[in-house]
From TrEMBL:
UniProt entry tagged with the keyword Lyase: yes
One annotated GO biological process: coenzyme A biosynthetic process
Catalytic reaction(s) noted: N-[(R)-4-phosphopantothenoyl]-L-cysteine + H(+) = (R)-4'-phosphopantetheine + CO2; (R)-4'-phosphopantothenate + L-cysteine + CTP = N-[(R)-4-phosphopantothenoyl]-L-cysteine + CMP + diphosphate + H(+)
Organism: Thiomicrorhabdus xiamenensis
Family: In the C-terminal section; belongs to the PPC synthetase family.
Residues given in the record as CTP binding sites: D99, K109, P127, D128, I129, V130, F145, K159, K163
GO molecular function, one term: FMN binding
Region of interest called Phosphopantothenate--cysteine ligase, as start-end residue ranges on this chain: 11-220
UniProt KW keywords: Decarboxylase, Flavoprotein, FMN, Ligase, Lyase, Magnesium, Metal-binding, Multifunctional enzyme
Record flagged with keyword Lyase: yes
Protein name (Swiss-Prot/TrEMBL): Coenzyme A biosynthesis bifunctional protein CoaBC
Cofactor, free-text remark: Binds 1 FMN per subunit.
Segment of the intact protein contained: 184 to 403 of 403
Pathway the protein takes part in: Cofactor biosynthesis; coenzyme A biosynthesis; CoA from (R)-pantothenate: step 3/5; Cofactor biosynthesis; coenzyme A biosynthesis; CoA from (R)-pantothenate: step 2/5
Length: 220
């Protein structure tokens, strides 16, 4: 099924962290490696899909045959997604997008003052990229991720509904799983159905995710 389904399907993926600059030498970031999103891109391309991969700052090679767009901040990622989403049948939002950006980033390096004991940064909410795509009409089939350290399934179900996603991949972060790790254990959740995968490499998780997306779309 997956081979037939994915052949020539247009798939858009976001992957990696976003970096929110404070000044030319400092940023707010997170520990996403981008490995899960890149693994999905690689496996989908092998199944014959036409893959566009919007990547935050990561140290990973571009999978063969995948069109890659590099971005840095959440706002840049949002702009790239807005450009691309309409040409794609499926959108997988695997990026760990920063929730907040600096209200103002300084053009010059911020200098500490003599005797300064603290620093307050003003942050502003970033756009929710996946929720925005899910609101468009027409819209692609939208798959989100929920990386959590606790209450993983509960938070994921809440996000599925709140962001109006078609599917969400819940994953536990920590214990050698999730961020920075080569292994993962996703639970794939649609309205009403939960499919728990067993722990395996991110490539294997990607294959099973792509199979399941094909199954769900074909059954709808
Ligand atoms: O709310 P939370 O960040 O945990 O939701 C995770 C899901 O939402 C992921 O699929 C992530 O890619 C997406 N997201 C996004 N834009 C944001 C925040 C999260 O697309 N600003």
């Amino acid at each position: 099924l997956a081979n037939v389904f994915w052949k020539d399907k247009k798939l858009l993926i976001t992957a990696g962290p976003t970096f929110e600059d404070l000044d030319p030498v400092r940023f707010l970031g997170n520990r996403s490696s981008g490995k899960m999103g890149f693994a999905i891109a690689e496996q989908a391309q092998k199944l014959g899909a036409q893959v566009t991969l919007i990547a935050g700052p990561v140290n990973l090679p571009t999978p063969q045959g995948v069109e890659r767009i590099d971005v840095r901040s959440a706002r840049q990622m949002f702009a790239a997604v807005q450009q691309c989403y309409a040409q794609n049948a499926i959108f997988i939002s695997a990026a760990a997008v920063a929730d907040f950006a600096l209200a103002q980033s300084s053009e010059q390096k911020i200098k500490k003052q003599a005797g300064q004991e603290g620093l307050t940064l003003e942050l502003v909410k970033n756009p929710d990229i996946v929720a925005w795509v899910a609101e468009q009409k027409p819209k692609p089939f939208v798959v989100g991720f929920a990386a959590e350290t606790q209450n993983v399934i509960g938070y994921a179900q809440d996000k599925l509904q709140r962001k109006k996603l078609d599917m969400i991949c819940a994953n536990q972060v920590g214990e050698n799983l999730g961020f920075e790790s080569d292994e993962n254990r996703l639970t794939l959740i649609t309205a009403g159905v939960e499919k728990a995968l067993t722990t395996s490499s991110k490539s294997q998780q990607a294959v099973e995710l792509l199979d399941y997306i094909a199954e769900v779309i074909e059954a709808s």
